[in-house]
Amino acid sequence: MLQAPGRREPVEGVQGTSKAVWRLRLIAVCLGLTALAFLQDPGMTVIDTKVDLAIDPAGWLSRALHVWDPDGTFGQLQNQAYGYLWPMGPFFLVGKLLAVPAWVVQRLWWALLLIVAFTGVVRLAGRLHIGTPWARLLAGVAFALSPRLITEIGPISVEAWPTALAPWVLIPLVGLAEGAPVRRAVTRSALVVACAGGVNATAVLAVVPLAGLWLLGLQPARLRIKALLAWGLAVAAATAWWLVPLLLLGRYSPPFLDYIETGPVTTGPTDMVTVLRGASHWHAYLNGAYGPPWTAGWRLATERPLVVATLVVAGLGIAGLARRGMPHRRFLVTGLLVGLALVGLGHVATVDGFGAQTQRAFLDAAGAPLRNVHKFDVVLRLPLILGLAHLVGLVLRAARVADRPELNPGLPRMLQPVRLRAGLVTGTALLAVAAVASPALAGGLAAQGSFRDVPGYWRQATSWLDKNLGEDRVLVVPAARFPRYLWGSPSDEITQPLLESRWGVRSSVPLTPPGTIRLLDAVESALANGEGSAGLAALLARSGVRYLLLRSDLDYGHSGAIQPVVVRQALQRSPGIRAVRAFGPEVGGGELPGNFVDHGLDVKVPALEVYEVTGSVSPVAAYDAAGLTTVVGGPESLLSAAAAGQLTAAPAVLAGDRPKELTGGPVLLTDGMRRREVAFGQPHDNVSATMTATEQGQLGAPARDYLPDWGDAQATTVRYLGIEGVSASSSWSDAQPLLGGRPAHQPYAALDGDPGTSWRSAPGTVATQQWFEVELTETQVVRKVGITFDTGADSLPTKITVTAGRQQTVVDNPGQSTVVTLPEGYPTRRVRVSIDQVFDIRAGFGGVGIAELAIPGVKAERTLDVPVPPATGSPAAVVLTAAPGASACVFDEGRPICDGGLARDSEDGNRIDRMVSLPVAAGYQVALRVRPRPGGELNDLLDAGGRAAVARGVTPVVAASSVGVPHPAARP
């Protein structure tokens, strides 16, 4: 495979250029790259990999020595934290010990990365005898400022670091083709692999394929086999320091890979053109309310001039590889093809990659660690860059020959086009590389959210907590996937590097068991609706939580967190929780008197508040095993059980975790663990309506929910009575990964007999592609169908088709309500309503809805089957709870603030219908806790005298043309 090396050029390159001058040129470029690094957000700490490295690298590295962290989020595994032990962690630690400002250390790290990438390509091209010295300099800069490195160096440089080292992995191995000792070559290459770190195993793995291809091409075969075996053993030894902990992590880690991005997401932007130009990182295509989080990557992915520039660089590289005089052409073209295969085969489009669907299925199953295929970009990027060096070197050599007429009499006139071609190719390459680097030249490498320093009040609050927590824990609320504050975005939880005590938070995907995540979500749910819970304090105390830290300085509009005024009301309405301290200035409320922001929800509150949970449970206690309460349900069931006063001081065990040796003890039957689908990327409104026992999720993710092993067996499921089932083309009650779901708008809501509830299609769907279908329990003739459409949806149908078996009836202009008469036909078990045309009521997402659909002789009911409790010989206590809703109004110091966007209806509608199996015959006492529903009847009760008094003329009539929200506080 490998060609003969040919003529060896001197180190200094061109004639008359000394080694000192050549080194000065290298140093000049390195200084330029360093200046470029310091051009990015000078004086600001940026979001790069881990905020701990900038604030407390020593603490981070000490925790990285252990797989288990008992202090964070009720105990959690360290996700490849050991990978920071070399070289990134020590680099930041040395900077901290030398008292270098954190932002300077970050920029020095970036400069080192750029310089390593640049010099690696220059050295590799020289060893492979590709291009001229000037061409190699251009290629080195093109690689250091390639799209992948430009995209990643700001927000996640630890993943860009292995790419920068990739040329250096190959350089020692090149000498094997020229007679270098095998031991020295493979040892040096393996040492470079060891320096790639171990934070991201896939990114490190990406530096291996090109080296393997080079060794496969060595001649003779004996040398090839010897080098492959030696290099494989050396690399295994060089990566053992992080590979062994990775295997240990994989053995005990929760299945967090099932909760993050999926194969269709990561392979979406991996078509061949996008892969060739280097814009295959899916994160670069994300755009939020405040613009794209990765600005440089977004520009390279979407701005037309930069797209053209990346294509030009890739095209010049392909042209260079296509030249027959290309040194080691077979090796480089093979590397290009292998890189294209690794990154692009999983892409599904009009023309799929080879075996694309199979590869996607693999990436969401056994191949989940390799799911981010864009990390293999370096496998094809290096050949393309070396092809660019060869092409530019060819035209520069030709131009140099044209400038020496004494060697070619009569040649200058004939070679004039050669000089023009050289200028055109070189100038094009320079302009294209500069254009690709323009996000860096404009200072746009850093991700959004840079901050100058952590505010002092955060350090004051964490210091106070360290003095008062003892062995207890603080829970940071509200939850935020990637917290962004008013003062900046550390991306990670800022509590970790600041606090020495135990803490917990619901972040994007905590590396804790699924049960812990469900428990945190139950707490978050109690805060999100603003109502709190009578059992919240008891649940927190049982979990070892003594304090809650309310962070009102979150940029909740960007973080997706709950508004502070809602959380404060929930905490104030939860018995056993009281405010004890406040830190920092007041935030919110605007700067102008009477300023109305976010529907008035943006009120002035302290930046940080500490709430104390009373009634903490002793951390060490012994209980009789006979008093252990078995809870049928999930961890979230403990909140409603505590609110109902059904938890004793003794521990509780979930039925799925119940030891076989436990034979007696009280049983608590709940409906809390419902079979649902979760949109893992959403912090709130992320669950679907409760599903039937056989219903599958709509998102196609590897996991449907945060479930323990026994989750499906202990889930509460839906059963339909009077009908076999009901379905729709789409539903707002499904888990929605972008805009959030509304379980109350499930298909059954159109059959429940309540005109106030409705099925609505999912946001973003095309209204004229929607359908709604009822499956009957037995075959029958359907002659009429009554339909009432939901006028609260975005669109009102103007043409529908009702199908019953082989019979169809098309109805034009059905209005809000219509009765469709079907012709006499064959019996059927399915009745479908299809939407053919619509009138847009408002500029929305095109959704349609049905409030009621009635079929004569058919009465549909929906009940929930609660799991069968274990037989312990004791009667079971039963706690049944309606699915949570939320009010449209909250109160700030008695003043109502209303926003229709806060309102959430319960998927249970106006009734709780359950099917339970009680283990022991006994006398059961029933208690019911209710909350009045907003509406005219409630208003009559609240208004002085009500309608009867108005009829007698006793009280004046107060009326209004309309009301903003259906809440008593907003009534006229």
Structural account:
With about 950 residues, the chain is an alpha/beta fold. About 35% of the residues lie in helices and about 15% in strands. The protein has 30 helices and 25 strands. The strands form 7 sheets. A 5-stranded mixed beta sheet has the order 4-3-5-7-6, sandwiched between helices. The chain has a 5-stranded antiparallel beta sheet with strand order 12-14-19-16-17, with no helix packed on it.
Keywords:
five-stranded antiparallel β-sheet; disordered N terminus; single chain; 972 residues; 4 domains
Main β sheet profile: 5 strands, mixed
Structural class, please?
Answer: alpha/beta
Count of DSSP E strands? 25
Roughly what is the average pLDDT, rounded to an integer? 90
Helix and strand topology:
Blueprint: H1 19-38, H2 51-55, H3 57-64, E1 68-69, E2 76-77, H4 88-97, H5 102-127, H6 133-144, H7 147-152, H8 157-174, H9 182-194, H10 201-205, H11 208-216, H12 221-252, H13 263-266, H14 272-277, H15 295-302, H16 304-322, H17 329-344, H18 356-363, H19 377-402, H20 412-436, H21 438-441, H22 456-469, E3 473-477, H23 495-498, E4 502-505, H24 514-528, H25 536-542, E5 545-551, H26 556-559, H27 564-572, E6 577-587, E7 605-613, E8 629-632, H28 637-643, E9 652-654, E10 667-670, E11 717-721, E12 723-728, E13 759-760, E14 771-780, E15 784-789, E16 795-804, E17 807-812, E18 817-821, E19 828-840, E20 849-854, E21 861-865, E22 876-879, E23 889-892, E24 895-898, E25 914-915, H29 936-942, H30 946-951
Parallel strand pairs: 3-4, 3-5, 8-9, 8-10, 10-22, 21-25
Antiparallel strand pairs: 1-2, 5-7, 6-7, 11-21, 12-14, 13-20, 14-19, 15-18, 15-20, 16-17, 16-19, 23-24
